[in-house]
Structure formats: structure tokens, C-alpha cells
Amino acid sequence: MNKILLIIKREYLSRVKKKSFILMTILGPILMVGIMIVPIWLSTQKSEKQKIEVIDESFLFTGLIPEKDNVHFDYPPITKQQARDGFFATDYDAILWIPHNVLNGGQSGIELLFKKQLSNSTQQHIEYSLNKMLYEVMLAKNNVNVNFIKDAKEKSTIKMFTKQLDEVGNEKNTNTGLYMGIGLVAAIMIYFFIFMYGVQVMRGVMEEKTSRIVEVILSSVKPFQLMMGKIVGVALVGLTQFLLWVILSTTLYSFASATILKDIEMKQIQQKEEVITIGANLDWEKMGKNPEENEISKLLNDFKSVDMVSITLCFLFYFLAGYLMYSALFAAIGAAVDSEADTNQFMLPITIPLIFSFGIAQTVMQDPQGSLAVWFSMIPLTSPVVMMVRLPFGVPPWEVALSMAFLVLGFLFTTWLAARIYRTGILMYGKKVTWKELGKWLFYKG
């Protein structure tokens, strides 16, 4: 046992002191927080104001197209040709030409001419506004009450709230989209962690084998002790990096919230106060609305319904158990070959279950309690990914316990299997190993 601990200590310290480990530990949280913060910050920045010259030959939209903070419309009394001829002598960014026969199917002829590419939001705003206005004009032209249509649309819109009911009769709000997001993120992290750290084990074994250092090491320790020391040592490196990512990401996000996002929060509070002030005299209860509710607050409330403590603990278990199972097989591959080019024929069959489990994650999210999801969350080679996808939706405790038990048994079996290959292959040099040869190594005695 002391020898295994020494190997674990060596593997752990040698890897956490590497520049690549330190660099990735620092850059990882910065990138993750940046992905969350930068889009929010950019969305609040005012883009350059764009001026549109509208040539409305139908005279239906003149002065009526709604403006935005960054979009302004002018309606000069000129023709399309005149606008084109003097376009580059003006400060207009685009010409919007509406034909005179727009009500007779001429909407396909509406043109937007620009000097430089307009922003996508501007184009969508123009298209949406014209379609909406044209729709209302067509209704009015045919003596249809536009207000009646609007009222019918509002009253016929149904919002369905999903709630989970337990045997006692307690209700719990659910959010399928949120559960899908949590499950998918957890599955992706396990998928990449297993690959990333499993390959590190394989390369570490190959380096020691090709440099013949392993011959010296095996003079004082058994092959199984060496293999387990390497696997556990790299697992601790992975856990250390993951925990540091969580701590640093939380710290950076808190700092960003107190600085970069402070102005955004103040604007949101002001907008919220304006909404409450405006709607103070309205009968919100009768309207079935709450002025203080928005999508973000609803999402936060739904997030509270998720048992994150259980999901985090299960994540740590499936990450460790899944990694230990696959890394034992990666170590066996590293011991069986002499170069990384020879690993391809052995890696693909081993990693197919992991790749397949990630591939069916979408199907599992659509039906987390279906037979496909249940069976693949029990099979040890696929359960680390599939079970993490299912957990946010709620999984019976007995299924989780059974899945964990199967995964532990799977780890013990694959470790025994890998140890049989490792003890023979680690001292085998200059020979192209085949699957048949690996099968023989499993039954060698001694």
C-alpha cells in the first residue's frame, strides 16, 4: 500500500507542477466566465446608429415604420432612381424601396440596398415591422376588425405550467429546458474529462515503457501497484483541476457581477420599477400576470427546484468511477503498444460505448424514463454519461444505487482485465500486438 501511495504522490506532484496544468487551470475559468459575461455585456452596448432612406411608392408605410435606438428612417419625396444616383453622396446606410403594388403580391419586390452589410437585428426589425403592418393593412382592406384579431390572439394563447406530483401529494415546479441544460453540461464534462485524463494515463505508461524507466520501477513494485498508482494519481489531478475551476469560476463571476454587470443590474432594476409604477393601477390578478415576474426570475425559481447537492455528488461519483474504469483500459493499451500510432486499433473499440452514450444523450433527454434511457444508465460503459443526463429529471433512488453498484463492479472487472494485459505488455518491446495476442495475455499464469 505504501508503494502505491508513493506512486500516486509522484504522479500527482509531477503533473500539477507542469506549466500546462497551471495554464489550463487559470485559463479554463477565464474562458468559461467570459462565455457567460461577454455576450451579456455586448448585448447592452449601443451599436452604431444606422440611417435608412425609405422610398415608399405605396404610401402605406410613410412615417409609420417603428424606429429603434440604433435605427432611424427618413422618407424623402424622391424616386428610387434618384435615391440610387445620390446614395453615396448621402450619409444613409441603406435604401428601403417599397413598390406601389405591395398589396397586390408585390411584397416579393421589396428591396433593401446598402453600402455596407447591415446588422442582422436591423434587417430582422425591418422585415418584421413591414410584415406586421402589411398584415394589418390587408385585414383592414377586407373589413376585418384588427383589434378583434389581436384580442383573440392574446386570449387564445395558453401557457402550460408543468409540475411534478409525488405520492404524498406535494407539487414541485419543473422546467424541462433547464433540466436538459444541466444534464447535457454534466454529461459533456464527464465525457471530456474521461477522455482527457484517460489519454494522459495511456501516454504516461507509454513514455515510461519506451524510455525503459519502467524496468527500474518494476524491480521494486508490482505491475498492478504501478498501474493503480498512475490511475489514482491522475484522477486526483483531475479532481484538483475541477475543484480549482469551480472556485476560480465562482470568484471571477462574483467579481464580474460586482463590476461589469453592476450597470446592467441597475438598468434592469430601473426598468422593473418603471413597469411596476406604470402597472400599479392595473388589475394584474384579473389579467393573470405579475409585473415583477420575468423569464430570469422564473428560471432562478425553477433552478431552486433542482437538487444540485445530489447531482454534484453523483457527478463526482460517476466522474471518478467512470474515469477509473476507462483509464484502466487506457493504461492497458499504453502497456501493450510501443508508439501512439499503434493505439488507434485498440482505442476505437474501447471508446465506442462512451461515444455512443454521448450520441444518444438527445434521445435520453426526450424520454428520460424510457426503457432505452434506463438500460443504458445501468450498463457500466455508458452509465457515467447517460445517468448524468437523466438525473436532473428525477431518477428513483433504487435505479441510481443499482447503476452505481454495476459501475463499481464494472470498474473491478475492467481493472482485473487491464492488470492481466498490463503485467505482460509493460515489458514487451518491438512487437506489433494484435487482439489475438491480447487474448492470450489474459490467461497467462504467474
Overall form? elongated
What kind of sheet is the major sheet?
A: 4 strands, mixed
Order of SSEs, N→C? HHEEHEEHHEEHHHHHHHHHHHHH
| Beta-strand share of residues | 5-15%
Secondary structure: number of strands:
6
Oligomer: single chain
Q: What does it look like?
A:
With 446 residues, the chain is mainly α. It folds into two domains: 106 residues, D-Maltodextrin-Binding Protein, domain 2; 208 residues, no CATH class. Helix content is 64%, strand content 6%. It contains 18 helices and six strands. The strands form two sheets. A four-stranded mixed sheet has the order 2-1-3-4. A two-stranded antiparallel sheet has the order 5-6. Strand 5 and strand 6 form a beta hairpin. It is elongated, with a radius of gyration of 31 Å. About 4% of the residues have low confidence.
What's this entry about, in short?
The protein has 446 residues and is mainly α. The chain contains 18 helices and six strands. Helices cover 64% and strands 6% of the residues.
